[in-house]
From TrEMBL:
Biased composition (Acidic residues): 46-63, 124-142
Principal subcellular localisation of the protein: nucleus
Domain of life according to the entry: Eukaryota
Matching Pfam families: Mpp10 (PF04006)
Chain intervals with Basic residues compositional bias: 389-405
Protein name, as recorded: U3 small nucleolar ribonucleoprotein mpp10
Family: Belongs to the MPP10 family.
GO terms for cellular component: Mpp10 complex; small-subunit processome; sno(s)RNA-containing ribonucleoprotein complex
């Protein structure tokens, strides 16, 4: 029964605080094995040859003793059962056993410490030498004048001292203000009252009314009253508001369709940019036209008033006129004719297209093998395609059938009257 319990305890694994034990690997067993191996290596270095010889003899004896019947070999002889997690009741039962094992292991701690010290000495001997040299540099004070030092050594000593100070500052615990988000338990009591905190506001902060602000406002009011600078709204009568159609600061957009093309607009902009003195816009052109009409009416009115108010006849004032005189003989101008000929001139110029050419007018001059189409153009039967011939034959049949229905419809009342 005890043997069975010991086997179950070996198959049970315990969880450590780092989560390294998973049933296959145990950090405690690993540490024990490494310590035992180091102890064996330290003890057995002196008798290496003898141990090798004895191990060979022992291995041969074990091989010879283990030789047996192959039918007696089982799976459990080579493999252990899968590990299982220890229950709470088992942990409580085995607590005393674990404490006893720890006490047994503590007996050999002095020897283990000696071996571990020797191993560390062998492994880290070179590093310790460098560290001692660095520590000696740090311990040396650059301001010490007892030991003569070179310039490079003094610079290195200052540099190492600064590095040591920065490392100590970075490793040291910081204040709660510089430690990020701090809870109430992480900071001293009423420590927020001593700090100016920055935080986002949802609305505009209300200004604080102080004595200085009120004095500034009063001085501003007095100064404006003395200078008569008032920002009040000018009082107006209600009738003036309806009559005033002034729309200040509002741009009126013309939504009418533009009458000019894009090329004309570009040409107008080009003329306006190059010749601003001679450029006349459409609005100015319309205004100038009206001014000319007014000026002509005024001149005509003046002429009539002068004629009515004077005893003697006053002719009209001379007006500038423009006449074009061509330097050509008169007989040459009378005999001039259009370049297209005289056949088109006359009454034929006033004829419509259907009066000039009528389709089917030349049917008498068409041969038997020719056919006149709807457009009036004659076409030969040999030039017609098969589809055109079928289409023409179908039209002819439809025309004949329509003509037959008309004749039967007219003769139908006569047949009815005869039967009566």
């Amino acid at each position: 029964m005890e043997h069975h319990n010991s086997e179950d305890s070996d198959n049970v694994y315990q969880e450590d605080k780092f989560g390294l034990n998973d049933g296959f690997f145990s950090i405690e067993e690993f540490n024990k094995q490494t310590e035992m191996l180091e102890l064996d290596n330290a003890v057995l270095d002196q008798s290496e040859d003898e141990s090798d010889h004895e191990s060979n003899i022992d291995s041969e004896e074990e091989i010879s003793s283990n030789m047996g019947n192959a039918n007696d070999v089982f799976y459990n002889d080579f493999f252990q059962p899968p590990p299982r997690k220890m229950r709470r009741d088992e942990q409580q039962v085995n607590f005393l056993e674990r404490q006893k094992r720890k006490s047994d292991n503590q007996i050999d701690e002095p020897s283990l410490e000696r071996t571990m010290r020797d191993v560390r000495k062998d492994l880290f001997e070179d590093d310790s030498v460098h560290e001692d040299s660095d520590e000696s540099i740090l311990e040396d004070d650059p301001s010490d004048t007892k030991t003569p030092k070179s310039t490079h050594e003094r610079q290195q000593a200052k540099l190492m001292k600064e590095i040591r100070r920065l490392e100590a500052a970075s490793v040291a615990s910081r204040e709660w203000v510089l430690a990020g988000e701090a809870r109430a338990a992480d900071r001293p009591l009423n420590s927020l009252l001593e700090k100016e905190l920055e935080f986002e506001r949802t609305g505009k902060p209300v200004p604080e009314v102080t004595a200085e602000i009120s004095e500034n406002i009063e001085s501003l009011i007095k100064r404006r009253i003395l200078a008569q600078e008032f920002d009040e709204v000018i009082r107006r009568r209600p009738d003036d508001l309806s009559k005033s159609n002034i729309r200040r600061g509002i741009f009126e957009l013309d939504d009418n369709k533009p009458q000019q093309s894009l090329a004309e607009m570009y040409a107008e902009d080009h003329v306006k940019a190059n010749n601003p003195d001679t450029y006349i816009s459409k609005a100015n052109e319309k205004m100038q036209k009206e001014e000319r009409e007014i000026e002509a009416l005024w001149k005509g009115l003046n002429i009539k008033l002068d004629a009515l108010s004077s005893w003697n006849f006053k002719p009209k004032p001379p007006a500038p006129s423009l006449t074009i005189v061509s330097d050509i003989a008169t007989i040459t101008m009378e005999d001039a004719q259009p370049t297209t000929g005289s056949g088109i001139s006359g009454a034929q110029n006033m004829l419509a297209p259907q009066e000039i050419y009528k389709a089917g007018r030349d049917q008498n001059n068409v041969g038997k093998s020719d056919i006149i189409t709807r457009s009036g153009l004659p076409i030969s039967r040999q030039e017609m395609t098969r589809d055109q011939k079928i289409r023409r034959r179908r039209r002819a049949k439809e025309r004949i059938s329509k003509r037959g229905t008309r004749t039967t419809g007219k003769s139908r009342p006569e047949s009815i009257s005869k039967s009566i």
